[in-house]
Amino acid sequence: MTERWYPSLEPCRLIYYSGSWYLIALQKGKLQVFPLADIKSVSLTSERFERRGHIHSLVAEERFISALPHFHFISNVIHNFRE
Fold this sequence. Notes:
Layout: E1 9-17, E2 20-27, E3 30-35, H1 53-60, H2 62-66, H3 71-82
Antiparallel strand pairs: 1-2, 2-3
């Protein structure tokens, strides 16, 4: 697996669902989901983030949480459909 670096990742929430942990974060304003099992290392920075109420509400919805294992597939389908 290729190692990736995600600078300025804005963490929003950790969610445990169906036996797995997921990090929900914003990267350049785009919502991303990272299975915690795929994260090998992190770097602490002094950067601070304000909690975004609309994002927090979205990621707390049961429909969002139940779709977490399929997030990358759904995101790719939507992205490719727009092109």
